[in-house]
Amino acid sequence: MDEAYDVGLGNIDFVLRKKADSDFVSFWDDEAKNLSWFSYWEKTLDWQPPFAKWFVGGTINASFNALDVHQKTKSSKPAILWEGENGESRIITYGEMFLQVKKFSNVLKSLGVKKGDRVTIYLPMVPELPIAMLACARIGAIHAVIFSGFSAASIKDRISDSHSKVVVTANGGYRRGKIVKLKEVIDEAIKDVDFVEHVVVLKRTENEISTSSKDRLWDDLMNNVPDSCDAEKLDSTHPLYILYTSGTTGKPKGVLHGTGGYLTHLYSTFKWAFDIKDSDVFFCTADIGWVTGHSYVVYAPLLHGATQVMYEGAPDFPDASRIWEILQKYHVTIFYTTPTALRMFMKFGNNIPNSFDLSSLRLLGTVGEPINPEVWKWYFKTIGNEKCPIIDTWWQTETGGMLISPLPGLETMPLKPGSGTLPIPGVRISVVDENGDEVPPNTKGYLVIKNPWPGMLLTLWGDDEKYKTVYWSKYKNCYYPGDYALKDDDGYLWLLGRADDVLKVAGHRIGTAELESCIVSHSDVAESAVCGITDEIKGEVIIAFVVLKEGISDTEILKKEIFDKIRNDIGAIATPKQIYFVSKLPKTRSGKIMRRLLKRIANNEKIGDVSTLEDGTAVTEIQNAFDDIQKSIKRNSC
Ligand code: WTA
After folding, report:
1. Closest-CA residue to 600 (of 534, 514, 548, 511)
2. Is residue 479 within 6 Å of ligand 1 at its C-beta?
3. Measuring from atom 11 of ligand 1, which residue has the nearest CA?
4. Distance from the CA of 236 to the center of ligand 1, in angstroms?
5. Which stretch of DSSP H or E encloses residue 271?
6. Atom of ligand 1 at shortest distance to CA of 420?
7. Is the CB of 291 under 6 A from ligand 1?
8. Domains of the chain
9. Mean pLDDT by 10 residues, the chain (638 residues)
10. What is the residue with the minimal CA distance to atom 25 of ligand 1?
């Protein structure tokens, strides 16, 4: 067994776990009662595999549970301690947030938004982003938030798929001291889209924008609406939001989450994993454009009436001490971030965090990628001063909330650096082989989830068939998340990265197929294959191999065009570290690109059996390309 870290000796709550495992439906039934319902449900779970409906017949509202329920006791309590990248700050109390959300709900209504309509939100990390989301939730509109780093072409795909009739954006947002011109990106994205009726523009910066007849200013609209708006009584299964995420095939898919089940999952996991108390100051560094921001910046903390810090910009801007400065300034007690951020902070050296007073911290969380044991230990010792448990939470956009995590709000147990420990109660998880048989302890296999859970996605927006095939076809009646894992002798789970063609670059999900089809859409490109190689900070970086059409020369200009195309069509997060021109790709005799082989060569692993390869010369060529990049990476790190 690996080194175990006991932080506050205690025990696993076997009684609760046994109860949850023996009857997960009544277990969640009890948990759901922590929320405020307009009417209780008739059926806790309607399970028509693979479609789960939770708390059927119950009526609820997410905005009501995030705001209205706190007004009697917490209206002057800060909900958000906002820190702008440029040094500005704002405190938004539960009372203020309530008022703003009701007003923006009326704005949406005045623009013709009705229950079930979709609203695309493309805003920087400012309080108006959760305000806009909660306003949608209040009137039963479905929000579709897009991360502010995505390009116009990506936004167009998402707006077209969700058919949003209103878009909410800003005249800019700050990132690394520069203004990101969000409104211009929206103008480009919707220039040929006729169904977007209105664009609401928040003034966040001094950036001048050009306006069209569709554009309305946030402030003007807010000044002209009443400040009362009752929350709609919505069915528990009413869709709360669509969030697009990359998968193994084609364009990003719209993960659709419901209301009652999703909120129950978040309420319980936030309480268990972060042991949230009224006096806590929570700080999650995730951007709201990703699922961690939806679940654990917007919904979970507000459901609990917690105070949280929200930071607008880059974690290392204007310098490497920014995050620790924020922790010290706001006396943060619970800090939740990514392994990529931690690897970067670790590289900056201990002197920086050591020069700040971080003694308010009591819990430290991590999410989004496997955490290397040495980074875990650094987080534990240098940031947590050996007194804060590390809450390594495994989950996905599709799962809605955490499914594997230490739960100090429920039980205490020894931690192991790099392990997410156990599944949350009520969720049965196994590690299986190709045939679905459980593998012995300490053996790498595929993670599967064997029963529905409340935060589970309802489906993929407009595509039930894809939902079935992507998640439920590999193993009968089991959800397949696409991750490798192993269970050790103590039953602890170790997450070992993606088992499919999805990359995790700095914690962001990028589909290889989406990236390849973008590269291939360049008129000079015949074929392309991309894969990830290990990176010291980002976990993984992208390498792209490109075969050009007959007669086309591999120039630096062409390479730049391909880089630009990726930035324009997807966004900067999908930019490869390197593009290599090769004359062919390693393929099986049946014509499939051997991505596994690319990955192996890329990670300097043994190549293994290549007997099914069509043409061995492609391997040599690609191996040479990788030797080059390995050398260049070494040079960069010197
Ligand atoms: C990976 C992010 C190891 C995993 C919340 C999963 C993790 C994918 C962890 C989902 C973790 C997330 N340890 N790997 N603690 N958390 N992952 O949808 O591969 O952006 O399938 O959701 O991130 O990424 P997504």
Report:
1. 534
2. no
3. 394
4. 26
5. helix 260-274
6. 15
7. yes
8. 14-486 (3.40.50.12780), 501-637 (3.30.300.30)
9. 57 86 96 98 98 98 98 98 96 98 98 98 98 98 96 96 98 94 97 96 94 95 98 98 89 95 98 97 98 98 98 95 98 98 97 98 97 97 96 98 96 92 96 98 97 98 97 96 96 94 93 94 95 92 94 96 96 93 86 81 74 74 72 52
10. 396
